[in-house]
Design brief:
It is a single chain. By secondary structure, the protein is an alpha+beta fold. It has a domain of 66 residues. Helices cover 43% and strands 12% of the residues. The chain has 4 helices and 2 strands. It has a two-stranded antiparallel sheet. Strand 1 and strand 2 form a beta hairpin. The longest helix is centred in the N-terminal third of the chain and has 13 residues. The two termini are 31 Å apart.
């Protein structure tokens, strides 16, 4: 919210500082893991088969989130058959590389 407000006001340096704080904050990483593990699909593993269940797994996941050296994986593309015989693409993200 504060980042968006700073951008609207044209305070680019303030927005940059807030973005840096957000990406390097340990609490932001904790919040990210909490949001991923408490949503509707929390019991559904990704393509990689990783499922963060339990406090220990969530704690290890928090420490595995690194800012430097992160290279996102390409989404896995699968095709789901439709009723009319055609196939529709579906992209599935993964948790770990």
């Amino acid at each position: 919210m504060r980042i968006a407000k700073a951008i609207v006001e044209g305070r680019w340096n303030k927005a940059r500082v807030l973005q840096y704080r957000l990406t390097n904050s340990f609490h932001a990483k904790l919040l990210a893991v909490k949001r991923v593990t408490s949503n509707k699909g929390k019991k559904t593993p990704g393509v990689d088969g990783i499922l963060w269940m339990g406090a220990g797994a969530k704690w290890r996941a928090t420490f595995s989130l690194l800012r430097r050296g992160y290279k996102p994986q390409p989404l896995r593309r699968i095709y789901i058959p439709k009723k009319n015989g055609k196939k529709r693409p579906l992209s599935i993200p993964t948790v770990y590389s």
